[in-house]
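Consider the tokenized backbone below.
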């Protein structure tokens, strides 16, 4: 492999894997800030910021951001998780600098226009409603909440309708300045990329980035418990779990292997026993989610109301 890493003076890491035989590249900026970086009044603000980053900067409108990347055949996207937020693009090799410029622009110069934010908050309210209407999504929010009650790591990424509607441009900007700092950010690229060239671009475009100062998130304390929501859906969606391992712990890889053995495919023990032999459900699988200082291991399944009492003991056995 041809992985190269450079740490800039402001703490930002530039990491590349050059693949000169390719005609394209993927590039992104990942920030060590997500849902668990939020204060109580900021529930959902990480996700709103991810949306608002594409809604206009000091030099580009929202349409100009989209046109700049799509006019060269590229695409631009982003995602928010519990501990990280990522902004990324895929482009042809000659457009890597353009992609880096757009990414740096939205992460340094977003204006958070109040009109755009009002519309985007309504979009997220619809997204929250869609998630609540989808039980095989919502059950995992309930599971996380039961695992880490009253903690940022246990809250939903999307926020609530009330919390999202309460956000202002000033609140989003304050959150961004507090958490989007050099030693919490990585620019990574893979494909036909020039490492030294990308380092120079990052130095120039992120010259004003604060080097540090982001507060450490509240330490996770796994507690566990029950969360139940009664609805009129035809199936019961069930997640059973316990505390897992942090991604830097000695037990991380063992937990990943165990999840695969128990419920990682059609040959897994859960699939064979619960579905193939007993016909108790259409899908069942195991998973392990690792965080910086904790983790959760679980089994998920969906079954009919009459089959719940038989399925749960089988899974536990």
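A designed sequence for it:
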């Amino acid at each position: 492999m041809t992985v190269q890493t450079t740490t800039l003076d402001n703490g930002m890491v530039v990491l590349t894997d050059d693949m000169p035989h390719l005609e394209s590249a993927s590039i992104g900026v990942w920030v060590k800030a997500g849902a668990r970086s939020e204060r109580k009044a900021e529930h959902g603000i990480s996700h709103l910021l991810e949306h608002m980053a594409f809604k206009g900067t000091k030099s580009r409108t929202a349409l100009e951001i989209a046109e700049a990347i799509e006019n060269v055949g590229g695409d631009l996207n982003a995602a928010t998780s519990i501990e990280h937020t990522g902004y990324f693009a895929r482009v042809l090799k000659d457009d890597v600098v353009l992609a880096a410029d757009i990414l740096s622009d939205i992460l340094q110069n977003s204006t958070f226009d109040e009109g755009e934010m009002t519309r985007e908050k309504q979009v997220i309210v619809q997204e929250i409603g869609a998630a609540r209407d989808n039980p095989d999504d919502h059950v995992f929010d309930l599971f996380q909440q039961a695992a880490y009650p009253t903690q940022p790591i246990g809250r939903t990424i999307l926020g609530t309708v009330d919390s999202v509607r309460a956000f202002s441009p000033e609140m989003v900007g304050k959150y961004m300045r507090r958490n989007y700092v050099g030693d919490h950010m990585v620019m990574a690229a893979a494909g036909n990329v020039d490492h030294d060239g990308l380092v120079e671009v990052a130095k120039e475009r992120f010259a004003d980035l604060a080097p540090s100062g982001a507060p450490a998130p509240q330490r996770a304390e796994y507690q566990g418990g029950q969360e139940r929501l009664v609805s009129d859906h035809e199936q019961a969606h069930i997640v059973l779990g316990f505390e897992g391992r942090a991604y830097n712990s000695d037990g991380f890889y063992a937990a990943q292997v165990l999840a695969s053995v128990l419920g990682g495919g059609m040959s897994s023990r859960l699939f064979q026993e619960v579905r193939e032999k007993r016909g108790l459900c259409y899908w069942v699988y195991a998973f392990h989610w690792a965080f910086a200082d904790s983790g959760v291991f679980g089994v998920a399944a969906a079954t009919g109301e009459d089959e719940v009492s038989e399925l749960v003991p089988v899974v536990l056995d």
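The beta strands are 3-7, 13-18, 24-31, 75-80, 85-92, 185-191, 235-243, 283-290, 295-304.
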